[in-house]
Amino acid sequence: MKSPTSKAGMAVAALAVWMLSAGVAMADAAPKELIGSWKLTKWVLQVVGSTETKPPYGDNPKGRLIVTPQGDFMVIISGAGRKPATTVEEKAALLDTVLAYAGKSTFEGNKIVTTVDMSANEVFSGERARQVRFYEVTGDKLVIRTPEISSAVLPGKKTVGILEWVRE
Fold first, then answer.
1. Distance of CA 47 to the CA centre of its chain
2. What is the C-alpha to C-alpha distance for residues 144 and 132, in angstroms, rounded to an integer?
3. End-to-end alpha-carbon separation of the chain, Å?
């Protein structure tokens, strides 16, 4: 026969396990304001310490961002005016006008950390497999900012990527 103390201890342990697992599930869940499909309306690189900006994929890039309740984060962006490739060189050049990656994200305040598990470009693998972003939602508009990074588009400069989205 078990003592009342051991029953109480088992109940406390079961409650602790439930609370911990619920906490983990809540930590992985996306904030409700982010869940859904978003269409890119603007993407610029802002040079740190300057008013200089550059649209890396032109003035009218196309893009989709999908965030699921479970924290899946999937993004694809392509440059304006892309055309089907007919040669090996043209196919290779298309890689310079597409950005795509997906993975699981965690959310803390206005910060999103995505652990990339697949990407169109291996630049997002290895040391860059964790993508940190900061967001702000106002109504049906979403602004995502990168931290300051050394720019591949503007060599020798630090930039912040600013991506503007509208809910679909």
1. 21
2. 10
3. 61
pTM of the complete model: 0.80
Distance in angstroms (rounded) separating the CA atoms of residues 87 and 63: 25
The owner of tokens 């679909």 is 168
Give dist(CA 150, CA 157) in Å, integer: 6
- Taking the C-alpha atoms of residue 160 and residue 147, their distance in angstroms, rounded to an integer, is 6
Helix (H) or strand (E) holding 26: helix 4-28
CA distance 48 to 158: 6
Tens-digit pLDDT profile for residues 121-149: 887 776 668 999 999 999 999 999 999 99
The residue written with tokens 């003035």 in the block is 59
141: tokens are 């508009």
Euclidean distance between CA atoms 125 and 164, whole angstroms = 24
